[in-house]
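Incident review: delayed structure delivery

Summary: a single-chain prediction request sat in the queue longer than the usual turnaround. Root cause was a stuck worker, restarted by the on-call engineer. No data loss occurred. The affected request and its eventual output are reproduced below so the record is complete for anyone auditing the incident later.

Affected input:
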Amino acid sequence: MKARALLVLLMLHLPCWAFALDAPSFQAAVIEYNPIVQNPLGTISREDALGIMRRNVEEIDKLVLQAAAAGVSIVVLPEYGLNGPVFRTRDEALPYLEPVPFAGSRPCGNQSAIAESPISSALSCMARKHGIVLVANLGDVQSCSTQSDPHCPSDKRYQYNTQVAFDESGAVLNKYWKEHLYYEFYFDAPTGQLPKYFDTSFGVRFGMFICFDIIFGYPGLDLIRAYNVRHFVYSTWWVNTPPLMTATQIQQGWSEFFNVTILASNSGRFWYNSGSGIFVGGSIIASRYNSGNSPSNFVLVGSVPAAIPRDEFGAASQGVAAPTKYFRGLDLKYVNFNGSMVSGYHYFQLSVSGLSCRATVKISQSSSTNIGHMYFYAASGALTPLFPSKACGVIRCPSADTRKCFTLVPENIPPSSAETSFEVLELMVEFASNNMSATSVVPMTATGKAELLDDSGVRFTRISSTGESDGKYKLAMSSDGLLSKVPILNWTLFIRDLNTKHALAMREADKSASGLTAL
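Output delivered after worker restart:
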């Protein structure tokens, strides 16, 4: 029997998240960094690749020095932060790869490690020099035999997108291979990898995951439920598709839904690849989104509670098998706001496959009358070709071409500016799920050009949850009248069955995709 869920998204005033002022905490930093990259693309020598990565290590070290001066215990670096996603083939990637040491190794000062894994050694020394836990992303290569290993690629090597953590002495705490690759045909998806985490000297356990992993149940959901992880380190090179699914919106919403901390480090390339933050239970400790067209680097620092109560949404996972499906269809309905809505309350209801959505809106009197590109919508199916989802919300589109709003296909279209504010904005959502314990509902709210709303005026809260027996519950997002003058770009609930894998067929269908679109 399908459980049913009732959710609410509304504007009221409630505190977003709070913890005792005297509770143990630690200082954390995430670095938004735009790496030096090769130009033009193509296969280069190992010596040239090392030269590029060493230059990035030097620049990152300056930023880590700033973070260390602020007294941080841990620093997280972005995905592709040492080289940029400039590869198109396995051979083009190879000069940038090295055998990344496993947990327990201490590469700094080890001559054999310096020779075999010079970038890992440099990062290890960086962690030791600054006395911090350092989390970085680089490419790992491991040899294999096609005779003894049925999964071994024909070139007899595994190539992995890898996140690695070093402790204050430079020792490797753990390393994680990215599970869900996003058009990264030059990397391999690992087989049989267990979820990876590490414990620190300051008493906090961190789960590890990379970019596109955040959309799926594994490894995040398993780390939360099976390994009691409440803090995550997250390296990303996110492809923003404004007004929906920008990096900081998904980071904040994921943190809110699962009531966890996420230390998210992204590229600072420009609006298309940017958005980093430190979020605790959805509360914004620090965040940044580069909405412009010029690259920039930034260090975000914040105080994070060492303990977070286990209060995530949903019951324990029942280990349901994850089907692999390829979704092409999209069931979409929407209502275009118009000039007659500038006064009074307005009520809407839309239903699509397995999703019912209602909205109550009252536009602020001080708001711009230019509301022609504002839409209330409900969608179910292939908002993106890579995974199915459901969504309901109010958004401002960049143009009258609604396809550019409701399909999450990366395009070189900058985010439009929000112009419409609301005195009342309420969403009521009801949907069906075969497995509510593996279903996530991520709130995404943005203003301006995809900047996050002030979380002190926004709350996503569970009203009740009676589990999978009847599966009825409410979720609420709220804000007070202080937001009545803040223009809304996006106000959406994004619903995902986390047990549904992304369409691996897409990896073979579009191998001409640009190397600069990694997630």
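Verification: Residues 13 and 480 are 4 Å apart (CA to CA).
Action items: add queue-age alerting; document worker restart procedure.
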